[in-house]
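Title: Comparing notes on inverse folding

I've been comparing how different people in this forum approach sequence design from structure. To keep things fair, I'm posting one structure and asking everyone to reply with a full sequence. Here's the target:
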């Protein structure tokens, strides 16, 4: 029996002004509706064009749970194709990445397709003569995702027609991408250092929410970051602070630090922590970097770029970027209670290598399956996923610093410990879930 399918009122009722129903996290039916409606109605991150630098290069990923391919076509453009043979539905590639040459070949019946998805050849083609094959869906080849936008190297796609265009969907939030990219003296990033993948036994939205939850670090990370701080206190006077300590210690900053840090709210569920400062503000200077930036942009512009230290920027529905350390986390839904987290690192082209070293160290220390910090969060997610099955209370409270008029406000900076970003994300969730239902 279905409870929510086709029932717009029932879905919207899951999101109240100050709380959300547990079914947004635990219901498999709600999860399947997210895959059928919310993700296809949204602009979803696919990948970075530096992952496919050469003609024939491809990267396999998902939009929601739909398999797609990011591919460099022979004319140099980047395409996003559904990873499905139009014949029997077989996935064209099972590898995560590679180079297919000038065409894709289905491993089942050897149908082949150009790198823009168009049909190239079919074995025993005469068997389709006088069958009307030319008018079939299959004759069009691998279906492209119709709405694709490459924003300064970051590729997004939207499966459904209608709804918001790219600029409407993201608006002023793209400034966080701009700041991250502009930190390169030549305004260019490339994926570097591989990717860390980490399976989480929880709903994907828990991870998204946590990116703007500033009331948990000094509590959940006390055993990890707190221990680092205590060990560092015992270092001999004059000892140079190691890069690892610079990275981990700020997680133990007090509530007041995060309150004053600030949060910015943008349209459609986007926003960022770190309006005035962040845990990345006091990293040691990298020799020669500011000089390169000044030569590229002029001193005032270089100071403006590097003086912006946004903490986490959440792009609805399911990515977060850290501009100051060039990192992107992709929260990929697998099931209502399972999420694959991918943490990607980027190199600032023509910048000192020490910046990439810090980025890679941060990713290993904080986001890796072997991280001493990431396990703190994972335990909290899993406890929440289990606890939500308790019938003692079916609602999750998101009431901190609630204001009755906030739903009408956007592009505003607020107290850094507010749960407004989470409420804002769920308003966007309800909007895009029901947009075409």
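Reply #1:
Here's my take.
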């Amino acid at each position: 029996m279905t409870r929510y399918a086709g029932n717009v009122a029932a879905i919207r009722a899951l999101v109240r002004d100050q709380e959300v129903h547990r079914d947004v996290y635990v219901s498999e039916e709600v999860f399947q509706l997210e895959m059928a409606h919310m993700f296809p109605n949204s602009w979803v991150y696919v990948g970075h064009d530096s992952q496919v630098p050469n003609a024939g290069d491809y990267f396999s990923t998902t939009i929601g749970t739909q398999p797609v391919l990011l591919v460099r076509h022979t004319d140099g453009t980047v395409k996003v194709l559904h990873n499905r043979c139009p014949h029997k539905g077989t996935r064209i590639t099972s590898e995560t990445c590679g180079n297919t040459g000038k065409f894709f070949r289905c491993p089942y019946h050897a149908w082949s397709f150009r790198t823009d998805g168009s049909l190239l050849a079919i074995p025993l083609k005469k068997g389709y003569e006088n069958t009307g094959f030319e008018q079939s869906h299959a004759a069009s080849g691998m279906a492209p995702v119709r709405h694709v936008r490459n924003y300064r190297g970051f590729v997004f796609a939207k499966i459904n027609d209608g709804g918001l265009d790219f600029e409407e969907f993201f608006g002023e939030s793209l400034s966080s991408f701009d700041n991250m990219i502009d930190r390169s003296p030549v305004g260019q990033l490339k994926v570097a250092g591989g990717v860390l993948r980490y399976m989480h036994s929880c709903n994907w939205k828990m991870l998204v929410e946590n990116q703007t939850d500033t009331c948990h670090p000094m509590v959940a990370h006390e055993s990890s970051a707190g221990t680092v701080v205590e060990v560092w206190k015992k270092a001999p006077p004059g000892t140079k602070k190691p890069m690892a300590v610079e990275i981990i210690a700020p997680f133990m900053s007090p509530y007041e630090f995060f309150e004053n840090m600030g949060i910015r709210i943008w349209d459609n569920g986007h926003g960022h922590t770190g309006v005035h400062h962040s845990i990345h503000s006091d990293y040691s200077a990298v020799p020669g970097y500011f000089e390169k930036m000044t030569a590229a942009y002029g001193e005032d512009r270089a100071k403006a770029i590097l003086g912006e230290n946004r903490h986490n920027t959440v792009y609805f529905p399911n990515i977060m970027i850290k501009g100051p350390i060039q990192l992107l986390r992709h929260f990929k839904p697998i099931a209502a209670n399972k999420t694959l987290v991918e943490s990607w690192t980027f190199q600032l082209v023509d910048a000192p290598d020490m910046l990439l070293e810090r980025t890679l160290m941060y990713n290993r220390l904080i986001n890796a399956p072997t991280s001493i910090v990431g396990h703190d969060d994972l335990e909290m997610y899993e406890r929440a996923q289990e606890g939500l099955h308790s019938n003692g209370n079916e609602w999750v409270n998101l009431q901190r610093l609630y204001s009755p008029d906030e739903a009408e406000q956007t592009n505003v900076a607020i107290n850094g410990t507010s749960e407004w970003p989470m409420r804002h994300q769920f308003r966007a969730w309800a909007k895009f879930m029901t947009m075409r239902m």
